[in-house]
Amino acid sequence: EKIIRALRGRICTLSQHKFASNVIERCVLLGSRQQRALVIQEVIQEIAFVDMMKDQFANYVVQRCIDMAEPSQRKALIYKIRPHLPTMKKYTYAKHLANKVQNFC
To answer: CA end-to-end span of the chain, whole Å?
Structure first.
């Protein structure tokens, strides 16, 4: 609970750092449904979402969010990613995310 509160509002920025991204992934993996939903909702609403998809660390956070999201949030994530699929394959770090999204489609 304290960790989630400390991260709120900074998920995107922290996701782009090697060790902080690991903390965020663990929060998504091990947090309660409510805590997980808060983190995933912040990712969905993030203005720099496209940058997160291309980032070498943040793309793993987005992938973990897809894996752990409730169906409605997973649908929202995929809906937000889908328009970028053609260009994602050009980016080294976004390729894995693109493949994951295509597997869900």
So the answer is: 33
Please report, rounded to a whole number, the percentage of residues in the chain having pLDDT higher than 70. 99
Distance of alpha carbon 101 from alpha carbon 105, whole angstroms: 6
Distance of CA 81 to the CA centre of its chain: 10
Q: Which amino acid is at 10?
A: R
73 contacts 44 by C-beta, under 8 angstroms: yes
Q: How far is the C-alpha of 63 from the C-alpha of 12, rounded, in Å?
A: 14
Residue 4 has pLDDT above 90, yes or no: no
Whether the pLDDT of residue 25 is over 90: the answer is yes
CA 68 to chain centroid: 10
CA dihedral defined by 85, 86, 87, 92, rounded to 10 degrees?
70
pTM value? Answer: 0.92
